[in-house]
Amino acid sequence: MLKIAIIGTGWFADKHADLLAARDDVQVVAFLGTSIHKAEKLAQRYAGSQAFDDIEQLLDTCKPDAVYINVPPMAHGPIEEAILARNLPFLVEKPIGLDMQTVDRIQQLVESKQIITSVGYHIRYTDAAQTARKLLETRKVGMAVGGWMGQMPGVPWWRKQGGSGGQFVEQTTHIVDLVRYLVGEVEEVYAAYAQRHMHTSHEGVEVADVGAVTLKLANGAIASLTNTCILPFGHRSGLELFTDQGVLEIQQSQYLKHHEGSLITEYKDNANPYERETDAFLYAIKTGDRSRILTDYTDAAVTLRITLAALASSQSGLPIKLGTK
Ligand SMILES: NC(=O)c1ccc[n+]([C@@H]2O[C@H](COP(=O)([O-])OP(=O)(O)OC[C@H]3O[C@@H](n4cnc5c(N)ncnc54)[C@H](O)[C@@H]3O)[C@@H](O)[C@H]2O)c1
């Protein structure tokens, strides 16, 4: 039985805890909150788990075999460092931070200690993404068009620039990751962002509510991604790949459609990608075989670098070439 500690007490801490509690090979042993009260509230729901508001105390008392990190983007750094000091594997939700200096430091530790990590880019685990990868073995992508069009999440940290990093860093990162996974690595970024409405209708909104980003890929393909959080509802998030043999359309966690003129083939997502993500991570811990983990800390750092470059480009008005770090 693997002992798992959960950092965070919000929506996604609960989501991961639920998935873990449904398994018979793990026990959720602890929750860490910003207050003991929040941690206790969640711990009460999972038999045998304890509540903490101090990570050192949690790690010393519960001695977990692995840790799930589900905190807002601005809270990364000290948590990972405490976990790495004890050489523990961790699964961390995206995005993995907001500043590359901290992420580079953690990445170096992860690599030098050869720690097993996984990052919550769950779309990679969908049937849609896996089928698209297969189909792309015999197709050439000219360009990718996609994005994340929806509403502003209600949590207070999301609307702060220094809390979430903005929509492209926090949400559309999933689509940037999908571009990398399906089409190739990005070498240049240009972005235009604006605040059109949300800062006038809601208190304290610092982030842009519309954005358009152009990505040039090393293999010559181009991606055009847009996002908005101005809508009163979630509209769509996904990616279309325009290839020499038709269009591959992915709607996240729903389906892949292959358009060949009037012929449309639909592949539905049949499995829960979060379950597959957790399966792969736990399998790696039990066997040492990391091959089922589809994205790790080092890989996710590449995605973060792209989304932060987009933010910098939106501020300077200039394209940014992504060299090696
Ligand atoms: N992969 C996905 O599909 C997916 C979906 C939703 C959220 N997420 C990611 O999960 C992360 C958390 O999102 P959420 O929706 O659960 O947010 P949330 O606001 O519901 O919860 C965040 C929690 O983190 C806690 N927290 C903040 N700083 C902390 C610290 N230093 N130590 C311990 N706890 C701390 C807060 O008290 C809160 O309980 C975000 O990075 C988000 O992008 C991923």
Automatic annotation (TrEMBL):
Domain of life: Bacteria
UniProt cross-references to Gene3D superfamilies, sorted A to Z: Dihydrodipicolinate Reductase, domain 2, NAD(P)-binding Rossmann-like Domain
Residues of the Gfo/Idh/MocA-like oxidoreductase N-terminal domain: 2-121
Residues of the GFO/IDH/MocA-like oxidoreductase domain: 146-248
Membrane-traversing stretches: none
SUPFAM superfamilies on file: Glyceraldehyde-3-phosphate dehydrogenase-like, C-terminal domain, NAD(P)-binding Rossmann-fold domains
Cited PANTHER family: D-GLUCOSIDE 3-DEHYDROGENASE, UDP-N-ACETYL-2-AMINO-2-DEOXY-D-GLUCURONATE OXIDASE
Protein name: Gfo/Idh/MocA family oxidoreductase
Organism: Paenibacillus marchantiophytorum
